[in-house]
Design goal:
The protein is an alpha/beta fold. The chain has six helices and six strands; from the N terminus they run βαααβαβαβββα. It is globular.
Length: about 170
Amino acid sequence: LNPVLYLDTEMDLELNSWRAAAGEAVINPWFLETGAWAKNRELIEKVEKSFKNYKDYIGKIYHKQCPNASINEILAIIRKWYFKKVGRGNPCLVVYDYLKITSDIDKNRQEWQQLGDKVSMLNEIGAELDIHIWSAGQQNRSAHINNQRNDDSTTVGGSDRINMYSCFNAIF
């Protein structure tokens, strides 16, 4: 497993840890958070089976909570982590959880322009460091018109520039 930096704009490490552990055990996070898993033999087996996989993640996944961090702060965090924890030329993955307007709001630019700039800057640092960067965004409400799904690139929310500057775009 290559190192992963998870830049989280919304949730803290504890909440993400519960979700990740539940995902690894393939159970609802509620069972872990409440301890109810320990009262069900089937869940005990799932949780105990997942424990042996955790050693593969030790020292490989880094979580940084960064709500309202500007894109320049995000780029600085990525560079510092990359050179300190990964090392030049080594593979890694950076996950910037959610494309949104943050504290770096420029009153002279529209939100859609700022979102495009953010994607472009993430793309540029990925190319500069030769690393992979994943992010997520929202779909417009127009993705569901008259009870019909319209899952294509025209439904990406916020800015057409997200599509324009992304190296790859997928809808899940």
